[in-house]
Amino acid sequence: MDFELRRAREKLDKEQKERKQRARQKLERERKAKEEAKKQREAIDAERSRRLFDAAQAQLKVDQQMQESLLVGRGIMFYRVLEAVRCQGSGDKIKLPASCFSELQDQNAFDQGPLYFKLSTVHQEGSSEMIDADKGKGRSTHSGVLEFTADEGFVGLPPHVWQNLFPVDTPNIPLIEVRYVWLPKGTYAKLQPLRVGFSDLPNHKAILETSLRQHATLSEDDIFTVNYGELVYKLQVLELKPSSSVSVLETDIEVDIVGADTDSEKTHENVLKPLTFGTSESGTVDEGHYSYYKFSIDNDTWEKIASGDAKIEVKIEAEPNSGDTDIYISKHPLIFPTRHQHEWSSHDIGSKVLILSSKDKSLEAGTYSVGVYGFKGTTKYQVSVNVQGDSNRTVGQQAASSSSPMEMDTVECKNCKRYIPSRTIGLHEAYCSRHNVVCQHAGCGVVLRVEEAKNHVHCPKCEQAFHHGEMEKHMKVFHEPLHCPCGIVLEKEEMVQHQASVCPLRLIACRFCGDMVQAGSSAIDVRDRMRGLSEHESACGSRTAPCDSCGRSVMLKEMDIHRVAVHQKN
């Protein structure tokens, strides 16, 4: 009996402990569930608060951008994100879709003057065109607008704008933010060429002005190109006033050009090295390449040359066992003479000398360029320019007068055709017939030593006489067909004349803008052709400028006629 009661109590105690344990576990689970529910509610509240805050920040940013757009756009708000595509053009004017025209017209933007836009790249993941320091910031520049003919959703960028927005790499889908802005007129610009030689261009300020006419805006850190014939110079915008982006339309800008950054662009392009009279410069030129030098003739030196008391000697001395060179000289504005374009040249084998005297009609005071062309192999040379006094002129004239035929009994030698005293004619003819040979080529008649006769040859095309070793170079230089960029194929002498006076691609100095430009074909206007204006000058001269006397706007090409007809000024 006692045993059964004890077992019943034990069983009851065990059940009570189990019930208490289950109750404690249930309370613990309920407590944890409440804590988890509390945490979830707090997380939901925090996420809701963050979203509300982000939405408020986004709305604030949009409001700020709208205010900024209204401010920079002077009350006009225009903003688009468009895909960029390349288009042809030489300035900074872009092409926009027709819908942009309607949106701008609705806000009377065209009544505010020229349209200007700020262009910014949209950062995309995987794009490598941004520098690490500028990630998330993107690149930007400014532009004008050329026309509204682009496809919907696209913007056409000319090479200048494209290069400034995507200088290194282009993303798969180049997106551009286009925002209308108002820009002040520029008053000052500091530019830096990215290669040496730009300051050597004649009247480089006029060349720069011509290039800037194709632009509507300038922005700091932009790089734009200046073309001079076949040469291309890049200039970086370092500083602008009154702001970092300005308009260059209908304004006078003070321009400072600082020294070239020689580390920006390592090239072997043409550079003029100065030559001083009486001082030689050493150099090396490879086959098919040029080395260029320049020298100047001042007024005092030119007076001596014009009077016949002096002459200019340009001399090149090649080192022994070196290659061979040619020398070309031109007067500025042709600053880089070539095989096709030059005024003086020498093609002698080895060392060579060019004499420039008052007999040369093209010679006058000014700056000249010397081009050393590597004709064969690598040549080491010394080049020098000297002013030589023509003191031997009188002596030479006296020697010539003293060597006039003497009044004596002479007989013509049957072999060399020289007049020999009759008392020695027999001995002379015997000696002359054994040692001298007369060239039988028509029109030549040069008397040669027998051992020299085998090396005396005539060009089969121009019939000039040469040493046999010079014939290969003569044929290559003077008779090898040359191809002009305009499509004509001529030999050297004809090519020089063609590119100096006829070729539509030749460079001429425009009488209106002062720039070196391609001549082009004849002017379309008959009156312009009668004035001798080229195609470029006909268009350039159509620009107007105020008359100095009456202030009336007159076309530049009509200014002389206006001054004579209206103001009786020559």
TrEMBL record:
Q: Where is the composition biased (Basic and acidic residues)?
A: 1-18, 25-45
The segment(s) forming the TRAFD1/XAF1 zinc finger domain are: 533-562
- Occurrences of domain Ubiquitin fusion degradation protein UFD1 N-terminal subdomain (ranges): 89-184, 185-258
Q: Is the Transmembrane keyword given for this protein?
A: no
Question: Does the record carry Lyase as a key word?
Answer: no
Q: Which GO terms describe its biological process?
A: ERAD pathway; ubiquitin-dependent protein catabolic process
A Pfam family matched in the record: Znf_XAF1_N
* Region annotation Disordered: where it falls in the sequence: 1-45
Q: Please report the organism this UniProt entry assigns to the protein.
A: Malus domestica
**Where are the membrane-spanning stretches?**
none
Q: Which domain of life is it from?
A: Eukaryota
Alphabetical GO CC annotations of the entry are: VCP-NPL4-UFD1 AAA ATPase complex
Q: What are the record keywords, sorted?
A: Ubl conjugation pathway
Do you know which Gene3D superfamilies this protein is assigned to? Answer: 2.60.120.380, 3.10.330.10, Ubiquitin fusion degradation protein UFD1, N-terminal domain, Zinc/RING finger domain, C3HC4 (zinc finger)
Q: Name one GO molecular function term.
A: polyubiquitin modification-dependent protein binding
Q: What is this protein identified as? A: C2H2-type domain-containing protein
What the record says about family reads: Belongs to the UFD1 family.
Looking up InterPro entries in the UniProt record yields: TRAFD1-XIAF1_Znf (IPR049439), Ufd1-like (IPR004854), Ufd1-like_Nn (IPR042299), UFD1_N1 (IPR055417), UFD1_N2 (IPR055418), Znf_RING/FYVE/PHD (IPR013083)
